[in-house]
Every structure is written in structure tokens, then in C-alpha cells.
Amino acid sequence: MTDDSPHADDPSEIEPERVWDMLGSIDIAMLVTCSDQGMRGRPMSTIPRRDRGVIYILTESNSAAAKDIRVNGSVFLSYQGRGDHVALHGQAVVDPDRALVRELWNPGAEVFWPDGPEAHDVVALVVDPDRADVWDGHGLLRGIANIVRGAVKGRSPDLGTRGQVDL
């Protein structure tokens, strides 16, 4: 791959708004926290709020994720869906505000806590993202077509745009 290829790493190619769109279209992210035993990842449903510039995650107050974040708020979220990939770093805090939990309550939360937000010790993890590494891909079928086209023409395929974005 050469530096002038259409998929070279170029931060100017990715706009923060596009990253927020990607986050909104991918429900589950791998949340990685730092614990006393090293890094620990777990899949979590996220609630990105572009208007507030934060990402929320509902969990129980005594969950391993909440415990880790209370000690070290540095987190990593990894999203993947339909050709799009976002690796995001940020700082997180645990917010026990009951009104916020009720505001964020959704059918997915109801699956995990069927008696509602008041019946459980549910808190919001609030992630303030600072930067994201992004691969804005074309999806499976278009990606395969571009690979085949590139192989036939003897060129690197256009697999999308990659870059780093400050959020």
C-alpha cells in the first residue's frame, strides 16, 4: 500500500460526526478496563450520545467494570459492525444518578433487569472519549468485490478509509 492509496491512514478523511454515526449503528462494544489483575474486556451494550459527547453503559454498581473504573477510569471500547471498526480510548466514571439511569433505560436493559431500574442497583458508566482509531469500511459484499477487482487489476483494493479522530 502506498501513501497515496485511497485507504491510507489519513486523519483528515474521517470526521467526528461519522464516528458518532458508526457508534450509533453498532450496539455492542468490547469494554476494556484496567484491573488489579491486568486488562479485562467484556462485551457491553453502549448508548452513544453525540449531543453530550459521551457514551453511556448501564451496569450494576458492584459489577467488575464499575469496580475497575472507580479505581482507574482509563477505558478502551472496541466496536465492529458491517465493515466499520472503531477503537476508542477515553476516561470513564461511575454515575449512580437514578434519574440518568431512568433516562437511559431501554428494552435491552429490561432484558437484563426485568424488574426495572428501581429494583436493581443499576448505574451508568459515563465514557468521555478522547480519540478513536477508525476503519470506515465498505461492508462485506462491496469489500469482497473491491478485493477481486484489485486482484484482477493488480492493485491494492479500496477497503475504506482509516484514520485517527479526536473526539
Oligomer: single chain
Please, how many domains? Answer: 1
> CATH H-level name... which superfamily?
Electron Transport, Fmn-binding Protein, Chain A
Rounded to an integer, what's the Rg over CA atoms?
18 Å
Low-confidence stretches: 1-11, 140-147
Report the structural category: alpha+beta
Name the helicity range: 25-40%
Shape: globular
Written as H for each helix and E for each strand, in order along the chain, the element string is: HEEEEHEEHHEHE
Say how many strands there are.
Answer: 8
H/I helix tally: 5
Kindly report the average pLDDT value. 84
Give the CATH level 1 class. Answer: Mainly Beta
Measured between the Cα atoms of the first and last residue, the distance is 27 Å
Biggest β-sheet description:
8 strands, antiparallel
Approximate strand percentage: 35-45%
* CATH fold type: Pnp Oxidase, Chain A
CATH architecture: Roll
Provide an overview of this structure.
The protein is of the alpha+beta class. The chain has one domain: Roll (Pnp Oxidase, Chain A). About 25% of the residues lie in helices and about 40% in strands. It has 5 helices and 8 strands. It has helices spanning about 15-25, 65-70, 100-105, 105-110, 140-155; strands at about 30-35, 40-45, 45-50, 55-60, 75-80, 85-95, 120-135, 160-165. Strands 1, 2, 3, 4, 5, 6, 7 and 8 form an 8-stranded antiparallel beta sheet that branches. β5 and β6 (about 85-95) form a beta hairpin. The two termini are about 25 Å apart. Residues about 1-10 and about 140-145 have low confidence and may be disordered.
